[in-house]
Amino acid sequence: MRTSTILTSLPLTFALLAPLHAQEVLTGEAAFGTAEDNAPGTRRHITADALPAPSHAENDPEAPDFQNNPTMVDRPEGTMPQVPEGFAVEVFAEGLTEPRVIRIAPNGDIFVAESEAGRVSVFPADAQAPATPEVFAEGLDRPFGILFHPPQNPEHVYVAAANQVVRYPYAEGDRTASGEAEVILPDIPTERHWTRDLATTADGSRIFVSIGSASNVAGAMSDEPPEEITAWEQSYGVGAAWGDEENRAVVQVMNPDGSELRNFATGLRNCSGMAVQQDGTLWCTGNERDHIGPNLAPDYITSVQDGGFYGWPWYYAGGNEDPAHAGERLDLADKSLTPEVLLQAHSSTMQLVFHDDEAFPEEYHGIFATMRGSWNRENRTGYKVVRALIEDGKPTGVYEDFMTGFVLNEAEVWGRPTGIAVLPDGNLLVSDDANGTIYRVTHGGQ
Description:
This protein is mostly beta strands. It has one helix and 31 strands. It has one domain (13-443): TolB, C-terminal domain (Neuraminidase), CATH 2.120.10. The strands form eight sheets. The protein has a six-stranded mixed beta sheet with strand order 2-3-27-26-25-24, with no helix packed on it. Strands 1-5-31-30-29 form a five-stranded antiparallel beta sheet, with no helix packed on it. Strands 6-7-8-9 form a four-stranded antiparallel beta sheet, with no helix packed on it.
C-alpha cells in the first residue's frame, strides 16, 4: 500500500477531457467493457435479461481463476482524476492510511475511517487544502462505517469495526472522543468480508448495519438445508444461509443500544455502502460473487426492503441461478429481487451518496457511487466514480462515468476510489484508499 507523507497544496485542475458519448447509452455486451472504456460521460445500461450465461462455476476444477491484482503506483506528477467539463478536482488531503468511509457531522466536520491504521480521523469543517486531520478514536479493528446519532443533534458517534460496532460520546465540535468506546454489537465474525457500514432511520429509532458473507458462494455450507427450512427462515429471513454463513450476507437492524437485533434483508453478498434516501428508503451497494465469468455477476446499487431477499448464494440479478448451487433452492427463484441499477461485474462498488444540491447542475443530481476496481478479472474494470441517473426519484438503470483516469495501463493503477461524501456546500469528497488521498470535486470554479 503506497501512501505519501507529503501534504502539498495543489491547484484546482479542470479536466481536459470533455464528456464522451454524453447521450449515447451502451447496452448489451457493449455495456460490460473494461477500464479502458472509462471516460466522464460514458453511459451504460446493464439489464438482467441481457446477461451472458455463466462460463464456468466456482466448483469447476477446470475453470480459470484470474489473480490480477494491480501494481499500485504513486499518482504521476501533473496527473489528476478526469471529471466532466465544468467540474474541477483538487487534492484536499494526503498522507492518510487507507482512508475509506467519509461522513460529515451535522456541524460540517469531516470524519474519515482510516481502516488500515485502525483509527477514525476528523478534519474541521473549514479545513482548506492541504488539510491535516486530528485523531478522534484509535485502536479499532479495521473501522469502516461511521454514524452520527441521533441524526440531527448527535450524542454519539457510532463506528463499525470489522469485529464489532461501538459508540463514543459526542457533542457538537468534538474532534477527540470524550469517553471510552461502548460496545453495541459484539463478536461479529471477520472471515472474508469485513467492511461494515452503518445507517439510521430519519428519526434515529433504528440503526442498520451491513455484514458481508464469509465466502464467495457459500461452498462450505452443508449440502442440506436445516431440517425445518420454514422455521429457519422465520428466524433468519428468506433465503438466509446457515453454518459459517449464519447472519452473514445480510443487513441487520437494531435499536440504538443494540437490542432487538434482527436480519432486515438477506442475500446481499457484501453491502459495502449504505445511504438513506430522503423518503426514508434504505439503499446499498453490492459486491457480487466471482468465478462464474468475466461479466458475472454484476455489482449493483439497490433499494433494500424489509424482508427482502437479494439472491446470494443461490441466485443473482433476480432469478439467475448460480451454477455452483444449481437446482438446490428452486423455491427462491421468484423471490430473488432484482437491483435497480446493475453495474459492471468485479468493479468492487463501495460507497454511495444521494446528491441534489444546487452546487451541481440539476442534470448531475442522483446517486454517486465509488468503485475500487477489479482484482480477479483478466481485463480490469472499475477504478472510478459513477452516478446513477434518477427520474421522478427512481433510478432508470442507466449509470454514467463521472470520475475516471486512475488506470495507467494493464498493470499499473494509481488510485482506487472508495469513500464519498457530500459537503454542506454541495461539493463532493472522494477518498482514494490506495494512495491515502482525499479529493474535493467542485463545479463552476467554486
